[in-house]
Amino acid sequence: MKTDWDLSLPSLAETFKPYFLLGNIWCSVQNMWDPSIREMFKHHYNAITASNNHKPCNLLSGNPEKWVWDFKIADEIVDWAEENNIAMTGHTLLWHNMSRNWLTNIPGTTQPLTRQEAMENLHRYISTVAGRYSGRMYSWDVINEALNPTDWVAEPDWRKHLRRTGEGYGLSGNADTRWYDAFANGAQGDECGSDYIYYAFKFARTYDPVAKLYYNDYNEFDPSKCEAIAQMVEQVNER
Predict the structure, then answer these.
(1) CATH architecture of the domain formed by 12-238
(2) Which of 40, 45, 76, 239 is the most exposed place for a label (fewest CB within 10 A)?
(3) 135: Cβ–Cβ under 8 A, 6 or more apart, which residues?
(4) Contacts of 218 by beta carbon, 8 Å cutoff, 6+ apart
């Protein structure tokens, strides 16, 4: 249904431009192809996130036998943002949900891949996606919602607060954080499951040296989550 927007109102993006970018999501192909919505978006916003359209499950086939990519809609969104001078945030390179089970698990099972296999998959995925849009993204949400902290005082180590298999997310589908289990499978010496965090950021920086790199989460005002995120960021940056 066509919506009549009052574009005589002051632009939100221009109003707040001296302070920060103001963005919204590309909510659906159907909505964003509506000319009136596009004009409203261009009037009020100077940043955009592709909602679900840049997530692994929409870029990568569920077929475990081969890597099959579909960049059609993802490319259209990036092209449109670039043509209209709107900053594009890539969301997201790694998430415990809306991913592909075979990236981290033996196909058809709940058993994790080896650390080396998972590392190769992570590298291939991020090098392909970040490399494809290198220099065209304002920023990347490299990792989304990896932390699920409980009591920080009892466990003052961010690694203890990472989402793990079976923490209320079931054992099927794509709803678990399995990167941890795979990276732990074959870890030696100082290596551990949490290394996937570091390597995700390392690969993102390698294949897109310009974009800002973010860790993205919700309820960051929660004291325990805030402490865990801060410690994680400090340690990953130091490393």
Answers:
(1) Alpha-Beta Barrel (3.20)
(2) 239
(3) 208, 210, 211
(4) 145
